[in-house]
Design a protein that fits this description.
Elements (H helix, E strand, L loop, with lengths): L19 H22 L3 H73 L9 E9 L7 E4 L12 E3 L4 E8 L4 E5 L6 E6 L5 E6 L7 E4 L12 E4 L11 E9 L8 E6 L8 E5 L27
Antiparallel strand pairs: 1-2, 1-12, 2-5, 3-4, 3-12, 4-5, 6-7, 6-9, 7-8, 8-11, 9-10, 10-11
């Protein structure tokens, strides 16, 4: 073998083709082109759909252990929650049964005393069930729209309550829907009675925007404490007496002011009520108010009027 041939490259037994750098550039450009085409024109959507259908059984089988574990955990958690709720409801049922017996006895005694004193019977209230559709569009008011109106016998001024207490009052009635102003609205007021002391007052919606009521015009030395329950007094001729309205949560007494600042939390679900009861106003069952004649001016002996 000639010595001059030792420095020459060996002969190519296989065809090597393009270099690695050329392949990298080619496939990089092709990848960018496919990504742009997929984003702009969605050329790979059919392929993705076919692959998703083909791989769905595999994904379903792969997720079964996780789904079974979550189902088992939620099952035992739901069972414990249901058992706890059942125990609580049984306890409440026993308390309500005891109270029901006391209410029946007190009602019988009350009727006997009224008959003995020749007092008139208590006014009865009837109601219409309604569902809350949505909140009013005005962000500066606290109002609800319910699915009952004139065609269902709803009257303007009718009290509205839920299972917990008073929610508000019907302030606008349309043929199929009605507007309810909540007790927390700044334009709303309701006469209340302190169930602990029997003191009467008037609760107004809190003007600050918080879902609270303010018991105004109560003297600083008034006997009222945090935790006192307020119910309707029934003296306005609209709300039936004895329905819960609010709970006192804050009492501020200041020496420089005559009245105390008393804030109350409504017992009704003013921000989450779904089903409500519209009661008939009591003034429809009460006798008409007497007409009071205006006093006549006293004649002056000198010819004028006083």
């Amino acid at each position: 073998m000639p010595l001059g041939t030792l420095g020459s490259p060996p002969p190519a037994f296989f065809k090597q083709g393009p270099s690695a750098v050329s392949k990298l550039l080619l496939f990089s450009a092709l990848s960018v082109l496919l990504m742009v085409a997929d984003v702009r024109f969605g050329v790979t959507q059919p392929l993705r759909a076919v692959l998703s259908v083909a791989l769905y059984p595999v994904q379903w089988l792969a997720l079964r252990p996780q789904a079974l574990a979550e189902y088992g955990s939620s099952y035992f958690e739901a069972r414990d929650t249901a058992q706890a709720a059942e125990r609580e409801l049984r306890q409440q049922l026993l308390v309500q049964a005891q109270r029901s017996g006391q209410v029946d006895q007190l009602t019988l005694e009350n009727n006997q005393l009224r008959q003995l004193l020749a007092l008139r019977e208590r006014l009865t209230t009837t109601g219409v069930a309604a569902e809350v559709l949505y909140d009013a569009a005005d962000p500066y008011t606290r109002k609800l729209i319910i699915d009952r109106g004139l065609t269902h016998g709803i009257k303007i001024g009718a009290p509205v309550m839920d299972a917990h207490g008073i929610l508000g009052q019907v302030t606008r009635v349309l043929p199929l829907v009605s507007e309810v102003t909540l007790v927390i609205d700044r334009e709303h007021s309701i006469p209340v009675l302190n169930t602990r002391t029997g003191a009467r007052g008037v609760a107004y919606g809190e003007a600050g925007g918080a879902p609270l009521l303010e018991l105004r015009f109560m003297a600083t030395n008034a006997d009222i404490e945090v935790g006192d329950m307020l119910s309707t007094s029934g003296v306005d001729g609209i709300y039936p007496a004895g329905v819960m309205v609010a709970k006192v949560t804050k009492v501020e007494r200041r020496a420089e002011t005559t009245f105390a600042r008393i804030l109350c939390e409504p017992v009704g679900r003013v921000q989450g009520a779904r089903h409500v009861m519209v009661l008939e106003p009591l003034n429809t069952q009460m006798p008409a108010r007497p007409q009071i004649d205006k006093p006549q001016p006293i004649a002056n002996p000198k010819g004028g009027r006083r």
